[in-house]
């Protein structure tokens, strides 16, 4: 272990370390704590400039219900779900297929195709912006949830294929070979032999992609303009422009928007980190 | 992989097909279209485009806003390199097994999970000249009236600091994973030899962390050049265009100024810069494949 295990040190060193941990954590999360505090304040505090002290009245329930009552936050959240879940499922499905083809079949151009998927995943969004917007308008999908879903599926396929292909490489060839010997078809082998082995990888990829898509702001700005299709990121940005002085509502809205990926992260932490750090230990 | 093939090549082709079709339609072909569009004058709406050759690029060379944006991209790129450094420091700090450390690690990772729009709002608050916490803290030291996001010279640094917050968290998690997989025997051997902490770090730990460093640097470079959300939510490129970067400048020109051709040229420049890093990454990655 590096650095040296603190438990081998003096009790004083151990105690200091714990204190240092908590202080560092408090500083690190200070901006976030401030938002949480603001989201439970009353208007009186905001007007009096009491932003950082204890709230003079606790308005937790009031502020959060107010967000849903006075704005279309509920609609934005629902839109985000309707965008994120199908896009996530689509990207994972397409890339599982593609990753399998790239990991377990040898054919000419295999590495080139793989390289193109990786490179595409890193390009700046702006090089795609105008043509994708035009395409979405001309297919009648501008300002619809479907328009965003299709784009996200396509774009996330780059990262997902890189991810799936690397995990599929670890599946032993012998398993696939013996299934072939028994006369199973290629699709059947993929579905019944390979996929079940990859459940952890699929889970890791799904939570990662969920977070990426949920947090997208740029494409929501480019492909959507009305509340009927706007996801929560773009909705929040629009709201913050409208209620310049109602900080308690904007902060409550921010917390609501941030909650689903945070919740998912804590629920699936191990998978999430395993996905994110793929390649950090070898290569 | 097998040499004596027992399957037809139809199977992999069909497996690849859906992903390839989507990727071609939404990623590869648009890149080509944007490149070609950069040679046209077009408002982004009307059916007619006028071919103007390299005029968009010539105009860029004389456009002060372009150079400001490019310079800001450079500042982002350089300062973002603090993320792997701080991320490593944080990982070394947290790599212990005391009670509750798992929860503490996840809380440190928190900023990465939150949308950048929320991060932008949070920091806009933090910097607010009338009630922001930063000014309360500075006021304690007798410094008053600093408006970070309203000051042409400070605003970009303020946004970069906000961007570093989640980026450090990301690098930290990469390094924590790397530290988890260190070769224990080598560490013990070095300890037996009485190696100093710093020597161990530079001679034994860092070389073993090289894969983590490589990924941390790549994602940080790409992240810095992609910066858009924070600028859009915190300053909208202002004051006076001083916080613009190419990604946001391109968006403004294409959507608000109706200059899609000019915007495409900006996008091509950004794409060319990023291709340098992408090519390097691919080269490194594919080298290990062979």
Automatic annotation (TrEMBL), chain A:
Membrane topology according to the record: Multi-pass membrane protein
GO BP annotation list: transmembrane transport
Spans traversing the lipid bilayer: 76-99, 111-132, 144-168, 189-214, 249-268
SUPFAM superfamilies: MetI-like (SSF161098)
Main location: membrane
UniProt-listed CDD domains: TM_PBP2
Location in or out of the cell: Cell inner membrane; Cell membrane
Pfam short name (any one): BPD_transp_1
Source taxon at top rank: Bacteria
Keyword annotations from UniProtKB, A to Z: Cell inner membrane, Cell membrane, Membrane, Transmembrane, Transmembrane helix, Transport
ABC transmembrane type-1 domain: residues covered: 77-268
Assigned GO CC terms: plasma membrane
Protein function: Part of the ABC transporter complex UgpBAEC involved in sn-glycerol-3-phosphate (G3P) import. Probably responsible for the translocation of the substrate across the membrane.
Subunit composition and interactions: The complex is composed of two ATP-binding proteins (UgpC), two transmembrane proteins (UgpA and UgpE) and a solute-binding protein (UgpB).
Family of the protein in this entry: Belongs to the binding-protein-dependent transport system permease family.
Protein name: sn-glycerol-3-phosphate transport system permease protein UgpE
Organism: Natronospirillum operosum
Higher taxonomy: Bacteria, Pseudomonadati, Pseudomonadota, Gammaproteobacteria, Oceanospirillales
């Amino acid at each position: 272990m590096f650095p040296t295990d603190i438990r081998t040190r003096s009790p004083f060193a151990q105690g200091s370390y714990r204190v240092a941990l908590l202080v560092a954590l408090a500083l690190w999360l200070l901006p976030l704590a401030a938002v949480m505090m603001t989201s439970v304040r009353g208007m009186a505090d905001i007007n009096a400039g009491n932003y950082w002290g204890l709230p003079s009245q606790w308005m937790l329930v009031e502020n959060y219900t107010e967000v849903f009552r006075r704005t279309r936050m509920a609609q934005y959240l629902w839109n985000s779900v309707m965008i994120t879940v199908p896009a996530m499922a689509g990207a994972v499905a397409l890339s599982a297929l593609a990753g399998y083809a790239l990991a377990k079949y040898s054919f000419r151009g295999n590495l080139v195709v793989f390289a193109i998927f990786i490179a595409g995943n890193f390009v700046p969004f702006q090089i795609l912006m105008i043509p994708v917007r035009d395409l979405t308008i001309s297919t009648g999908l501008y300002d619809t949830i479907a328009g965003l879903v299709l784009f996200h599926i396509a774009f996330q396929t780059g990262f997902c294929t890189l991810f799936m292909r690397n995990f599929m490489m670890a599946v032993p060839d012998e398993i696939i070979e013996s299934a072939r010997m028994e006369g199973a078809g290629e699709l059947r082998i993929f579905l019944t032999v390979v996929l079940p082995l990859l459940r952890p990888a699929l889970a890791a990829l799904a939570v990662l992609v969920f977070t990426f898509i949920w947090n997208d702001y740029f494409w929501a700005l480019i492909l959507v303009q009305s509340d009927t299709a706007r996801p929560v990121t773009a909705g929040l940005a629009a709201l913050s422009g409208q209620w310049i002085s109602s900080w308690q509502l904007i902060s409550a809205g921010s917390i609501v928007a941030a909650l689903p990926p945070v919740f998912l992260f804590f629920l699936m932490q191990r998978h999430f980190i395993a996905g994110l750090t793929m390649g950090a230990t070898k290569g | 992989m097998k040499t004596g093939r027992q399957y037809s090549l139809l199977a992999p082709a069909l497996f690849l097909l859906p992903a390839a079709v989507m990727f071609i339609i939404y990623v590869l072909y648009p890149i080509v279209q944007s490149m070609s569009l950069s040679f046209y004058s077009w408002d982004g709406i009307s059916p007619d485009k006028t071919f103007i050759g390299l005029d968009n690029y010539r105009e860029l060379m004389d456009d002060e806003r372009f150079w400001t944006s490019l310079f800001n991209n450079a500042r982002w790129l350089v300062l973002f390199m603090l993320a792997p450094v701080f991320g490593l420091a944080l990982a070394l700090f947290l790599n212990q097994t005391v009670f509750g450390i798992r929860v503490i690690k996840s809380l440190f990772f928190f900023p990465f999970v939150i949308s950048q729009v929320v991060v932008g709002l949070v920091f806009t608050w933090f910097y607010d000249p009338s009630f922001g916490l930063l000014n309360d803290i500075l006021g304690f030291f007798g410094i008053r009236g600093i408006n970070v996001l309203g000051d042409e010279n400070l605003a970009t640094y303020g946004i970069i600091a906000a961007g570093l917050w989640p980026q450090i968290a990301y690098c930290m998690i990469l390094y924590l994973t790397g530290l988890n997989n260190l070769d224990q025997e080598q560490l013990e051997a070095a300890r037996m030899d009485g190696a100093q902490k710093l020597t161990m770090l530079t001679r034994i730990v860092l070389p073993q962390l090289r894969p983590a460093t490589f990924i941390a640097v790549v994602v940080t470079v790409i992240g810095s050049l992609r910066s858009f959300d924070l600028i859009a939510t915190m300053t909208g490129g202002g004051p006076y265009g001083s916080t613009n970067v190419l990604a946001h400048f391109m968006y403004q020109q294409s959507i608000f100024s109706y200059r899609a051709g000019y915007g495409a040229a900006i996008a091509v420049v950004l794409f060319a810069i990023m291709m340098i890093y992408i090519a390097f990454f691919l080269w490194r990655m594919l080298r290990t494949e062979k």
